[in-house]
Amino acid sequence: MKKIIVVVLLAILTIGSSLIYSRVYTKSREVSLSPGLSYAYTTKYPSADALVSSYYPTKNYGSSQYLTVSYKKSGFYSYSIWSYIKFNLPSIPAEDIEYAKLHLTLEYQDLSSYGTSYKKIYIYRVLSDWKEDQITWLNKPGGIYTGHYFIVYKTAASGTHYYVDITDLVKAWLNGTYANYGIRLSSDTNNGLIRFYSSEASTSYSNKPYLRIKYKIGLEVIVTPTIVTCPQGGEVSVTVQVKAHGGLSGTVTFSVTAGLPSGCTYSFNPSTVFLSSTSPIKTTTLTVKVGSTTSTGTYNIYVRATRGSYYDVGGFKLTVVQSGFTLSASPSSLTISQGGTATVTITVTAIGTYNKKVTLTLHSAPSGITAQFNPSTLYPGSSSTMTISVGSSVSPGTYNIEVKGVGEDGLTATTSITVTVVSSGFTLSASPSSITIAQGKSKTVTITVNPIGGYSKKVSFTLYSAPSGITAQFNPPSVTPGGSTTMTISVSSSVSPATYTIVVKGIGEDGKESTVSISVTVVEEPFDFTINAKPKFINAKKGDKVTVTVKVTLVSGKPKPVTLSLYGLPTGTYSFGYTKLTPTASTKLVIDTSGISEGTYTVTIEASGGGVTKAVTIILKVMGFDFTVSVEPSTIEIEQGSSGSVVVKVKLVKGTPEEVVLSLEGLPSGASYSFSPSKV
Question: How much is the pTM?
């Protein structure tokens, strides 16, 4: 398919010192412009368009004069024709697009011949790239339905124009949400064929497919802040932001066009900025210097940003005030006890170029509140330390005092300070202020005396409020303000688990009092016990039964059942009288050594219950019975019909002596024997 060439004619007319641009486009035009933003239009013809047919799946129709959409079914056979269109989009920000409409012109339709009243033409977003001279039904890219469609009725005549709003899709292409691979036209499954003119058609451009885009173009100026104040002889700055719309690019210059009062000058930094599609927003700083003779008042100042024939104007209000100074206090509010003092920093700040020496005084204060300044005289830009003294007779309350500054030329300024007067005395603090104690246990808390207004009397402590069963001791029992005591809180085992508030009172030597509360959470005394076994060392002959006494003793908490278990002996060789005990209690452990091999065993007896496990070990030594047998002489000769004798000796090797039964094996047939005795 042949390519469309865009021809742009740019005429530049020089009039005075300004340039007027007159643009003539074959495919784009701009409406007349006004300051700020206006609307412009551009028309984009396809960079590629083609149809694909399932009837000829390998054929390319890139040079066809038509964009066809068809579906036909006869019996079990059906085929479809789809059309693909792709546009090269302009470099316009998506946010500046007002609308984007797809235009198609009908060349032919045969709906009546199939008895079809209308066909819906669906618009799909193409998912991958394609080439006009290569696309076929077999290699066509996939697509996703955009939700846009239009209807062609059977009564539609050749030359009918269709406009479909696809603004959202074009914006998504421009802002990078989707890659621009164009659109696909498909139809519903009603029989019929519809042909639109393609970009190759031998017809006027008005009949060819195109994308009509309306967009904002121009400059937008925003000045911040919009209200500023400056003294005579001073200077003030505002930020001027300029934003290009509609893909506008180029160098922007700035100027103040109106409202600047007499005696003021201005400058922009930078004086120009360059806007582009990749950097459409820039800022500059406008600094206004106010002359010392500029009249006080409020002025509306207008700032203009210009790029060629495009410009916009923003504004701000400038209030010029008289040159002088101000006073500030830090802190501006404070608390002082009766008889106490505190300091405040007073700072003198110049307005404009004021540089006269300023003298500070306490201009307004209730009786009993005085102040001293160091230094009392200073230049703007400096600070003085103000010491405020409150007499012991000043009633507690909140007062406003005023500091006055007087310049050498008679100019004055004031600042106010809020003084809250409190009674002298002390406060108590507890660390920690909440604790957890088990029944029958105790813990410590540190109580600190904090003086108010230089209070120095010794303070003694008492447990002022507490439930029965909670007691306290203080060490030391009294301290001077600034000191601390260790409070030991004891909870008896009879106190029910719960959270209680106890109150500690401090009493000064002069009778002044203060209290502090402590949250005490009493928890159940934890269950605990010990386990013991007697005897712990056992020597037993194999076959003996031995008995061990196992005892569990309650240490703390409420008694809870525990289960006994044993480790280290074969199963079935031992038994407990009771496997469950509730401390304090005991039971017997019987060990039958007949099923236990000889040796030394470390036996662990474990008791577990109430979340607690305890164990005790015993040592069991099992000893076996053993002996040797010898015969003297070891060899004898006996004639037939005669008898002989030998001496059999049985010797104990280990263990306790036991009875041994003697027997003889291996005699020849016809021989007999007897032992005397047969047991030894």
Answer: 0.47
